[in-house]
Specification:
By secondary structure, the chain is of the alpha/beta class. Helix content is 39%, strand content 15%. The chain has helices spanning 15-25, 34-47, 58-68, 86-93, 112-120, 142-151, 210-219, 251-282, 309-318, 334-341, 347-355, 367-382; strands at 6-7, 51-55, 76-79, 97-100, 129-131, 155-159, 167-169, 175-177, 186-190, 203-207, 224-225, 239-240, 287-288, 295-296, 302-305, 321-322, 356-359. The strands form five sheets. A seven-stranded mixed beta sheet has the order 2-10-9-6-5-3-4, with helices on both faces. A three-stranded antiparallel beta sheet has the order 8-7-14, with no helix packed on it. Helix 4 links the parallel strand 3 and strand 4 (97-100).
């Protein structure tokens, strides 16, 4: 069967997106204009958070998050080794240490039990915060992590970059959207092209804290503000009250984000339809990410584990199926090895990495294309 190349992820840009961008290009503001607040308000409403703050990418969002929560040089945070490096790097940007707790071998999420073990191995106050990751779109149970965080006096940043539209159900029976900040202090999202909402680049920070909202909003714009100024010399006057960054999103990107966001509910439904077809085909034959009964996976990725991962990767590429590996465990990257993670006991993460491969997952993937992927996987693994 001859097929066009099938990537592991792909943005979906239609005329509504193009028209929205063109309208901004013809308007007065290309940046720092009205589309920023429009996007922020729509996104906050979608996830159920009180505040949302646009940034130029999710890495910037994580960086601003740890600064706003007061992380300092020499302090320590815990995150998952199975994530993109930015989840850990944000702590290093402020001179803090990153410690890794192992993943659950079935959900691939940061293990609550392993996190507790790590916390209990040190005196209270040794760690300052947690950064759980909603890996592949599956929500980490933020209610349980909140209980753990409160016990050890920790803040939480939820790395929800994979998961807009995902949710778990809390102990009261209430659905909790990823990044709604009801249990975490801050949520962070990504608008990279392969993510659910594609802005080219971009990110969003969510919180329910007015103090964090105001602080982050100032930090993303050089630390410059016109509020609570010590002096005022006229309408032009502003003050730089702290050292911030230029982490702003443009109105061009925000316009694209607004139209992309409108399509996300339908897109997440389609992603789950694709996941269901994969699971039906692989049930009892190939291991895939488990789904806890109280969760709804937003499915940025569909990950399977196979014995001959390298062989399958090559076989799929030979057939123009461009599967990907997510992720090389962060503690095994040369930078982190150099600062002391050689020999870390993260067996589940390393076992997962030796077998994981992400199959094509995006709303415009056709059933014919998916069948071609499934057949190639099964032929190679069970042919």
């Amino acid at each position: 069967m001859k097929m066009e190349p099938i990537p592991y992820g792909r943005q979906d840009i239609d005329d509504s997106d193009i028209n929205a961008v063109v309208s901004v290009l013809k308007a007065d503001y290309l940046t720092q204009g009205p589309k920023i607040s429009e996007f922020e308000e729509a996104f906050a409403k979608y996830v159920g958070a009180r505040y949302a703050i646009t940034v130029n990418n999710a890495t910037a969002g994580l960086h601003l998050g740890v600064i706003a929560l007061g992380l300092k040089k020499g302090e320590r945070i815990i995150t998952s080794p199975i994530t993109f490096a930015a989840s850990a790097n944000c702590a290093r940007y402020v001179g803090a240490e990153v410690w890794f707790a192992d993943i659950d071998p079935n959900t691939y999420l940061l293990s609550l039990e392993k996190t507790r073990e790590l916390l209990e191995s040190k005196p209270k106050g040794f760690f300052k915060g947690l950064i759980p990751v909603d890996f592949a779109g599956l929500p980490a149970n933020m209610e349980e992590f909140r209980k753990l965080a409160d016990e050890f006096n920790l803040w939480i940043i939820e790395d929800a970059c994979h998961a807009p539209g995902g949710y778990f159900t809390d102990s009261l029976g209430n659905p909790q959207m990823c990044g709604n900040a009801n249990y975490a202090d801050i949520g962070v999202f990504s608008f990279h092209p392969v993510k659910h909402i594609a802005c080219g680049e971009g990110g969003m920070i969510t919180t329910n804290s007015e103090a964090l909202y105001k602080n982050i909003s100032t930090l993303r714009t050089h630390g410059i503000t016109k509020e609570n100024m010590t002096e005022n010399h006229g309408g032009w006057y502003y003050e730089m009250q702290e050292l911030g960054f230029n982490y702003r999103l443009t109105d061009i990107q925000a316009a694209l984000g607004i139209t992309q966001l409108k399509k996300n509910p339908e897109g997440v439904i389609r992603r789950n339809e694709i996941a269901t077809r994969y699971k039906k085909a692989f049930q009892g034959k190939i291991k895939y990410q488990a789904l806890p009964g109280n969760s709804y996976n937003a499915h940025h990725l569909f990950v399977v584990e196979v014995d001959d991962r390298e062989g399958l990767y090559k076989h799929l590429r030979e057939n123009k199926i461009f599967a990907q590996i997510h992720y090389i465990p962060v503690h095994t990257l040369p930078y982190y090895k150099k600062i002391g993670y050689i020999g870390a006991d993260l067996a589940n993460s390393e076992s997962y990495y030796s077998q994981c491969i992400s199959l094509p997952m995006y709303p415009t993937l056709t059933e014919k294309e998916q069948d071609f992927v499934i057949q190639n996987v099964l032929d190679y693994c069970h042919g």
